[in-house]
């Protein structure tokens, strides 16, 4: 049996306000082609199918079309709900869809109930564990209010069923933060009651555990892995090689794993340097990329954003950090209001923007201007 481990599709996601719909559609077409050419039997989606609990119509249509195409290509699909998904919406008509080879696991009542798929040598048991919100479930399952306790109970139910079913191999899908894994900036925090992560040893009863939630593809142990998100969703993911894991289970139940990197990609890049450095041609390769630019010029260039857009198609962030000056935190509104004089407010603002204090001439000029403004206001 050949399995494709994916997760964190986040259909409907935007990148700093830019739609990713067309790029995602191209990548999903590539996935369908991969299923056909590599004879994939099962496609796993370990949570966060959608980016929002109420996805747009075009997003739902894209998912529906992809499911049909994957089944037509010869694969069954097993998907669990993640913390971004509405479990009820994603699980709609799940019993009916299961007859077509699409298995949606979105309810805690499904935990410990295997999806048994035949292969040479026996059956492979797939146990989907949807994202489980600890607070409402803890009382029902008699656990502590944290992810570790709830997932421990979920895996107890899985292990108990494995002992009864005795499958050729066991595959678990879960959506969580496993200890030792490497997060990025784009995952939504799922910490509850101070317990954010769960130990990878929790899944030792499975021959392979297909995790979702973290957006970087990575190996936690040989049998516990994250596939990562299909596309980058923050600039912290600029060095990620987006892809999936292909898992083979032979007639003896032995598991082997290889990586696959998507050809369809979205390039995101952080650039840092002076305006001259950035626009001098060294970064021409990133003209069509999504870029975040930090300019380090001592004096802020005029019309910086406008000029940068002549060199890059998608300037999505622009920061100014003058080189060799001390940076201070942004003053809060309250602290600004508490400044004693207009001069204090202006001086504070200047230091925040320029990263340095006023020099002697600038201090004299600002003193004169603020005094004239005060006198003009007093005479009205």
Keywords:
single chain; 380 residues; alpha/beta; Purple Acid Phosphatase, chain A, domain 2; 3 domains; 6-stranded mixed beta sheet; 11 helices; 19 strands; 23% strand; elongated
Short summary:
This protein is an alpha/beta fold and 380 residues long. It has helices at 21-37, 57-72, 87-90, 94-98, 134-141, 147-165, 275-279, 304-308, 333-337, 342-354, 360-379, and strands at residues 2-6, 14-15, 18-19, 42-46, 76-80, 102-105, 115-119, 122-128, 169-175, 177-178, 197-198, 208-212, 218-219, 224-226, 243-249, 255-261, 268-273, 290-295, 314-320. It is 31% helix and 23% strand.
- What's the number of domains? 3
Mean pLDDT: 91
Unreliable stretches (pLDDT < 50, length at least 5) are 190-195, 328-334
| Multimeric organization | single chain
Number of strands: 19
Strand order of the largest sheet: 6-5-4-1-15-16
Please name the CATH architecture of the largest domain: 4-Layer Sandwich
Q: What count of helical segments does DSSP give?
A: 11
Task: Please describe the topology of this protein.
Layout (H helix, E strand, L loop, with lengths): L1 E5 L7 E2 L2 E2 L1 H17 L4 E5 L10 H16 L3 E5 L6 H4 L3 H5 L3 E4 L9 E5 L2 E7 L5 H8 L5 H19 L3 E7 L1 E2 L18 E2 L9 E5 L5 E2 L4 E3 L16 E7 L5 E7 L6 E6 L1 H5 L10 E6 L8 H5 L5 E7 L12 H5 L4 H13 L5 H20 L1
Parallel strand pairs: 1-4, 4-5, 5-6, 8-9, 9-12, 10-11, 12-14, 17-18, 18-19
Antiparallel strand pairs: 1-15, 2-3, 7-8, 13-14, 15-16
Helix pairs in contact: 1-2, 5-6, 10-11
């Amino acid at each position: 049996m050949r399995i494709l481990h994916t997760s964190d599709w986040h259909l409907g996601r935007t990148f700093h306000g830019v739609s990713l719909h067309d790029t995602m559609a191209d990548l999903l077409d590539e996935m369908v082609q991969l299923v056909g050419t590599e004879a994939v039997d099962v496609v796993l989606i370990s949570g966060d199918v959608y980016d929002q609990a109420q996805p747009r119509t075009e997003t739902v249509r894209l998912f529906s079309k992809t499911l049909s195409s994957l089944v037509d290509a010869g694969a069954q699909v097993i998907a669990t709900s993640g913390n971004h998904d509405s479990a009820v919406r994603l699980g709609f008509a799940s019993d009916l869809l299961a007859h077509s080879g699409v298995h949606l696991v979105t309810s805690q009542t499904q935990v410990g109930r295997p999806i048994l798929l035949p292969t040479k040598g026996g059956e492979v048991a797939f146990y989907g564990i949807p994202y489980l919100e600890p607070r409402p479930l803890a009382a029902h399952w008699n656990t502590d209010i944290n992810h570790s306790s709830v997932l421990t109970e979920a895996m107890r139910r899985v292990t108990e069923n494995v002992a009864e079913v005795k499958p050729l191999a066991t595959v678990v899908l879960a959506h969580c933060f496993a200890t030792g894994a490497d997060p990025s900036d784009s995952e939504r925090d799922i910490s509850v009651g101070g317990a954010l992560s769960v130990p990878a040893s929790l899944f030792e009863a499975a021959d392979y555990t297909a995790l979702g939630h973290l957006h970087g593809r990575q190996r936690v142990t040989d049998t516990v892995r994250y596939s990562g998100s299909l596309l980058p969703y923050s600039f912290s993911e600029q060095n990620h090689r987006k892809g999936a894991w292909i898992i083979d289970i032979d007639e003896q139940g032995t598991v082997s794993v290889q990586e696959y990197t998507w050809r369809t990609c979205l390039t995101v890049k952080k650039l840092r340097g002076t305006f001259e450095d950035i626009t001098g041609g060294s970064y021409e390769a990133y003209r069509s990329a999504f870029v975040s630019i930090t300019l380090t010029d001592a004096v802020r260039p005029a019309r910086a954003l406008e000029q940068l857009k002549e060199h890059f198609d998608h300037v999505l962030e622009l920061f100014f950090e003058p080189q060799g000056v001390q940076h201070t935190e942004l003053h809060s509104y309250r602290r600004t209001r508490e400044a004693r004089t207009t001069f204090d407010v202006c001086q504070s603002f200047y230091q925040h923007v320029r990263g340095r204090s006023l020099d002697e001439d600038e201090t004299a000029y600002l003193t004169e201007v603020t005094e004239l403004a005060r006198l003009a206001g007093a005479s009205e």
